[in-house]
Amino acid sequence: MITLIIGKKGSGKTKKLIQMASEAIESSKGHVVVMEKGAKMTFDVHHRARLIDFDEYSIRGYDAFYGFVCGICACNYDVTDILIDSTLKIGGPNLEELAVFVAKLDKLSGHTQTKIVLSVSADEDEIPDSINAVSVKI
């Protein structure tokens, strides 16, 4: 299952993502992974979650982004939740490419039984209709 947290910059998406991570940690019988660009959530995310800074791995573009998420799922079958902040800063601003990325993640999510949450800095009406995901508007 894919969930998008949608809102403009400064609207509280990261705060909502941190809240969702905390809820996932409490309910998960496996591992929760939180991914971000830059180490800004170090003290906000519970230590039981695996916090990954994309800047440490030079991930740029949706293909590399997708490969990285696949690697996380492949190396640990106990990952139940993946929460990703700043999706457009990592993959790029092209929303049609985002739609393709979300479709790939949806298949991955179904195959691995992993819940994936993405924060996207955009207005809800900017998101392509082709994206089939649950949206949380901020």
Beta-strand level of the residues, as a percent range? 15-25%
Query: Under the CATH scheme, which architecture would be assigned?
Result: 3-Layer(aba) Sandwich
Largest sheet: 6 strands, parallel
**Number of extended strands:** 6
Tell me the count of domains.
1
Q: Mean pLDDT score, rounded?
A: 91
Helical content stands at 25-40%
* Oligomeric state as shown: single chain
Q: How far is the N terminus from the C terminus?
A: 19 Å
Order of helices and strands: EHEEHEHHEE
Which fold name corresponds to the CATH topology?
Rossmann fold
For the record, the CATH class is Alpha Beta
What's the total helix number? 4
Output the strand order for the largest sheet: 3-2-4-5-1-6
What is the fourth-level CATH superfamily?
P-loop containing nucleotide triphosphate hydrolases
Low-confidence stretches: none
- The class by helix and strand makeup works out as alpha/beta
Features:
138 residues, alpha/beta, Rossmann fold, six-stranded parallel β-sheet, 4 helices, 6 strands, globular
Layout: helices, strands, pairs:
Layout: E1 2-7, H1 13-27, E2 31-36, E3 50-53, H2 62-75, E4 79-84, H3 87-91, H4 95-112, E5 115-121, E6 134-137
Task: Give a structural overview.
- The chain has 138 residues and is an alpha/beta fold.
- It has a single domain (2-137), classed as Rossmann fold (3-Layer(aba) Sandwich), CATH 3.40.50.300.
- The chain is built from four helices and six strands, in the order βαββαβααββ.
- It has helices spanning 13-27, 62-75, 87-91, 95-112; strands at 2-7, 31-36, 50-53, 79-84, 115-121, 134-137.
- The longest helix has 18 residues, at 95-112.
- It is globular, with a radius of gyration of 14 Å.
- It starts with a strand and ends with a strand.
